[in-house]
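User: Sequence recovery, please. Input:
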């Protein structure tokens, strides 16, 4: 059985590719020890986007690169595994950061049962709204 002793970092761009990013973060929070968001965007943009979206997280990258943020997170959280979920644009970052494993958002979504924006059917509402049991 896989361990929950995991620190998970997700890039903002990866979250943009998810149909329901808040749900994905809520789901990930159940099976990770630590969960956060990293971005190569300026920190004021990152903070504003996270705040406006209402994303729950334990850490942000702040005023540093993704590589620097992952290195800092590694020193603050002691877990058995460290996984970075990103896009093709960020895949090489993890090669320069000890102890981190890269997972593409497409593969992470498939493994976790998260939907990608590219899998939303044309007849579904956008933004996605779940039907209540009364509809």
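Assistant: Recovered sequence (135 residues):
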């Amino acid at each position: 059985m896989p361990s929950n002793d995991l620190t998970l970092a997700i890039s903002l761009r990866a979250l943009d590719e998810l149909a329901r990013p808040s749900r994905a973060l809520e789901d990930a929070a159940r099976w990770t020890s630590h969960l956060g968001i990293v971005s190569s965007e300026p920190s004021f943009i990152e903070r504003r986007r996270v705040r406006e979206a209402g994303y729950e997280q334990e850490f942000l990258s702040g005023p540093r690169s993704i590589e620097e943020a992952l290195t800092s997170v590694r020193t603050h959280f002691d877990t058995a595994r460290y996984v970075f979920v990103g896009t093709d644009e960020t895949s090489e970052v993890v090669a320069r950061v000890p102890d981190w494993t890269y997972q593409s958002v497409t593969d992470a979504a498939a493994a976790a049962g998260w939907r990608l924006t590219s899998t939303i059917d044309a007849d579904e509402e956008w933004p996605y709204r779940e039907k209540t049991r009364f509809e």
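Residues 125-135 have pLDDT under 50 and may be disordered.
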